[in-house]
Write a structure and sequence with these properties.
- With about 425 residues, the chain is of the alpha/beta class.
- The protein contains 13 helices and 21 strands.
- The chain has a 4-stranded mixed beta sheet with strand order 2-13-15-14. It has a 4-stranded mixed beta sheet with strand order 4-5-3-12, covered by helices on one side. Strands 6-7-9-8 form a 4-stranded mixed beta sheet.
- Helix 6 links the parallel strand 10 and strand 11.
- Helix 2 runs parallel beside helix 3 and helix 8 runs parallel beside helix 9.
- The longest helix is centred in the middle third of the chain and has 15 residues.
């Protein structure tokens, strides 16, 4: 068994756990959190790196890669398109042989599940092939997620789709390049998709935006990674997932104590801004030159906040789930575009918080949460959305009854496999460690 010592896997990565109970009761912490969590690699970076690796001239090895449902979907799709992709999950590496803008297979069936990055990136990628025919489909949830604006943009390049949502068959004609109009307001992934393939069009793309991209930091991530891959790397390090970090960063505010995240940080991910919000509430970080450690000495004495999450919206659910434990209202804005992600995240979060007894004011672009006594005995609906499971998993660590009895349960906890397959294993490991330290 090969192990990358620079990014040593956790026990849970090497030895997968038994299937989780469904619904899963969350066991509260009875002592302050103490633990170390190695974050999974960033999904956003891993799937971009796979596309950019496929487009390169080199054979490139991704180190610290994420192995989850979304990245397995991307790997399988690239293999279906004829790319040579090999994986070593214990070592957290993926190796892909680039074809310099060529798509090896002329016709293929591409299953994208509910992976937005795979859906948008692969749709643009296959359009580099002349006279190609590609059949796309996804989960039921994907069939209502936006793709039409990207198909419209690709149509101006000669591609023809028989529908404007999943499933569809796409006939491709290569990418002549030139001016392309795109409305990326529903998802910045559509703009990222065009940016990555545009460098391999016959003439450079000139992308004209007719709507503001859903999340500019992810577009900046794409642009920076394109520049990195233009240098022709044969290896590429994946940052720890800043979105996944949001849950364990929040944990000390729920339980007290300290958490260590050795691979937290990096320069590509906008979601690192979530830490600034938690510091306003009361989280304290160690010295910048130390291994990243975060602690809270006085949970339960923290004020609610008002903050715009437009630029790091994947983390808004984490704060919303924490809000019942804060003193005073919390207002979260800039989240309208999340209504068209894995589910309507704004409406779903409002619904689950109300179920727990909270007073919630829901607007198109915001949630305002007024803390009320938490209602015990509820089962949290996750809507097949990993972020609901993990956010409420952290809230469930609050010792509501003062005796360690579970007071909420998570439906379909396995949905975390999308980005963080061993989330609940890691959470339990921290709880067990808190009992002995």
């Amino acid at each position: 068994m090969k192990i990358n010592l620079a990014r040593r896997p956790t026990f849970a990565t090497l030895f997968p756990s038994m299937p989780l109970a469904d619904p899963l009761p969350v066991i509260p912490f009875t002592r302050p959190a103490r633990g170390r969590v190695l974050l999974p690699g960033s999904k956003s970076i891993t799937n971009r790196a796979l596309i950019l690796g496929a487009l390169s001239r080199e054979t490139v090895t991704l180190r610290g890669a994420l192995f989850s449902r979304d990245t397995h979907i991307m790997v399988a799709a690239l293999q279906a398109l004829g790319f040579i992709v090999t994986t070593d999950e214990p070592a957290l590496t993926i190796t892909i042989t680039g074809q310099h803008g060529n798509i090896p297979v002329k016709e293929a069936v591409i299953a994208v599940g509910n992976a937005g990055t795979a859906a948008r990136f692969l749709t643009a990628l296959v359009c580099l092939r002349e006279h190609g025919v590609y059949h796309f489909d996804g989960d039921d949830a994907m069939r209502s997620r936006p793709i039409g604006a990207l198909l419209d943009a690709l149509a101006t390049q000669g591609a023809t789709a028989n529908a404007r949502n999943f499933p569809f068959t796409l006939q491709t004609a290569g990418l002549p390049g030139g001016k392309v109009e795109l409305d990326a307001s529903e998802s910045s992934q559509m703009l990222s998709a065009l940016l990555m393939v545009g460098t391999h069009a016959r003439t450079p793309f000139r992308i004209s935006l007719t709507g503001t991209p859903g999340s500019r930091p992810f577009v900046k991530m794409t642009e920076r990674m394109i520049g990195q891959f233009e240098a022709g790397p044969t290896s590429y390090d994946i940052e720890g997932d800043a979105s996944a970090a949001s849950y364990f960063l929040t944990l000390p505010l729920v339980t007290g104590g300290e958490i260590t995240l050795p691979n937290y940080g990096g320069s590509l991910q906008g979601d690192v801004k979530y830490l600034e919000v938690l510091e306003l509430i009361g989280l304290q970080a160690g010295a910048p030159d130390e291994i990243p450690r975060f602690h809270c000495d006085a949970p339960g004495k923290m004020m609610g906040v008002t903050h715009n999450f437009r630029e790091f919206s994947d983390t808004f659910l984490t704060l919303a789930a924490l809000a019942p434990l804060l003193d005073g209202p919390t207002k979260i804005t800039g989240i309208a575009h999340t209504r068209k992600q894995e589910t309507d995240r704004v409406a779903g979060m409002a619904r689950e918080l109300i179920k727990l007894g909270q007073r919630v004011v829901e607007e198109e672009d915001s949630l305002e949460i007024y803390p009320q006594p938490l209602q015990s005995g509820q089962i949290i609906e996750t809507y097949h959305d990993h972020r609901f499971a993990m956010s409420f998993g952290i809230l469930g660590c609050h010792d509501l009854h003062g005796d360690g009895r579970p007071w909420l349960a998570i439906k379909d906890p396995g949905c975390c496999a999308k980005t963080f397959p061993h989330f609940f294993d890691e959470l339990e490991s921290v709880r067990q460690n808190s009992l002995t330290n």
